[in-house]
Write a structure and sequence with these properties.
Layout lengths: L2 H5 L2 H4 L43 H11 L6 E4 L1 H13 L6 E4 L6 H8 L3 E4 L12 H7 L4 E7 L11 H11 L4 E5 L21 E6 L12 E4 L2 H10 L7 H10 L2 H26 L4 E4 L6 E6 L2 H10 L5 E2 L9 E5 L3 H12 L2
Parallel strand pairs: 2-3, 2-4, 4-5, 5-6
Antiparallel strand pairs: 1-7, 6-7, 8-9, 9-11, 10-11
Helix pairs in contact: 4-5, 10-12, 11-12
Bound molecules: pyridoxal-5'-phosphate.
């Protein structure tokens, strides 16, 4: 029996996948109770009157090529949020299992765990060491109930990349007990390579990727879970059929054509340069106490008066994310790197009493 089946909720391991209407684009569809006509103005290639492909193989093949993994190791969903939801539903038995998270971090891990009725174990990152993993505390917190461990690198909202060797040690420590889910939502903005190739050696490693950040497709809702094939096969039992809407699949295939892809990569480089400029300029402002180093498309900025900084930003027309009330990010705001022109206006707004 595979590790995936051993770790899965027993009822999911026993579940037969939903038998959706047969998919054969060569034949005319009089089997799925669709409307035979398009709505007036339907610009899609496939026609929105038709259900999409139940699991979009062309999109998955394209994403697998983008991330350099075999297609059978990838399942696409509506953002990495859906990946987190699928993992929770497949692996966390309510009122019995637990997921472990390392705050301050992305909130969906905790939310999906609680929605599933599972327990949450929190092992804070070590702020004094630049929000590094606290390996000793992590290992001490691992109980047999822990089935999923989430590590976000670069981490949201702190921006730092987590040391790859520490992640490897953790995966090895968890080997037969739990999946280690490494969320690489911001990996394109970091020099650190993806950990996905390690799945060859560490079959309990799961990597989350998204097109929402570096590829400017947050509105399309596309992400991927990359994992050992038995884990992917298990998640295919849980994902709803027709999960990916036709306009989304078509947008992905268009956005990942060579020309837009080259443009996206140039934009990533531009954003990283702008991040450095913004960080240096923020650090000179009287309201700013510390700008944490970032390998993502945002900066965590500690302020002497976070409320005043928020108010000044709002007056200049900007929303920032307020983390100032949380103990591990006291006084801090998270600022997404904008266009050079937006960053200039924000800096001016923050500097003006
Ligand atoms: C670390 C992290 N993971 C996942 C997501 C969600 O991404 P998606 O748009 O792919 O659902 C976010 C969004 O902010 C994030 O910060």
């Amino acid at each position: 029996m595979s590790l995936a089946l051993r770790l899965a909720r027993p009822e999911i391991a026993a579940l037969a996948p939903y038998a959706h209407a047969h998919w054969d684009p060569a034949l005319e569809r009089l089997h799925a109770n669709e409307n035979p006509w398009r709505y007036v103005g339907d610009q899609s290639l496939a026609g929105l009157n038709r259900y999409p492909e139940p699991q979009p193989r062309a999109v998955e093949a394209r994403l697998a090529a983008l991330y350099g993994v075999a297609p059978e190791r990838l399942i696409a969903g509506r953002g990495s949020d859906e990946g987190i939801d699928l993992l929770s539903r497949a692996f966390l038995t309510p009122y019995r299992d637990a997921a472990l998270v390392c705050p301050p971090t992305f909130g969906m891990y905790a939310l999906a765990t609680r929605l599933q009725g599972a327990a949450l174990v929190e092992v804070p990152l070590a702020r004094a060491r630049g929000y590094a993993l606290d390996e000793a505390a992590l290992h001490a917190a691992l109980t047999p109930a822990v089935k999923l461990v989430y590590v976000c690198t670069p981490n949201n909202p702190t921006g730092n990349a987590i040391e790859a060797a520490a992640i490897e040690r953790l995966a090895a420590r968890l080997a037969e007990q739990a999946l280690l889910v490494v969320d690489e939502a911001y990996a394109e903005f970091s020099a650190a390579p993806s950990l996905a190739p390690l799945i060859d050696r560490l079959p309990n490693l799961v990597v989350l990727r998204t097109l929402s950040k570096a590829y400017a497709l947050a509105g399309a809702r596309v992400g991927a879970v990359i994992a050992d094939t038995p884990v992917v096969e298990l998640l295919r039992r849980v994902i709803p059929p027709y999960s990916m809407p036709t306009p989304t699949s078509e947008a992905v295939l268009a956005a990942l054509e060579p020309a837009p892809l080259a443009r996206a990569r140039a934009r990533i480089a531009e954003l990283c340069a702008e991040r450095a400029r913004l960080a240096a300029a923020l650090a000179t402002l009287p309201l700013v106490r510390h700008v944490w180093p970032s390998e993502a498309n945002f900066l965590l900025v500690e302020c002497s008066d976070a409320a005043a900084a928020l108010a000044r930003a709002r007056r200049a027309g900007f929303l920032l994310r307020d983390f100032s009330a949380q103990p591990l990010t006291a006084g801090a705001l998270r600022i997404t790197v904008g266009t050079p022109e937006q960053n200039d206006r924000l800096l001016e707004g923050l500097a003006t009493p």
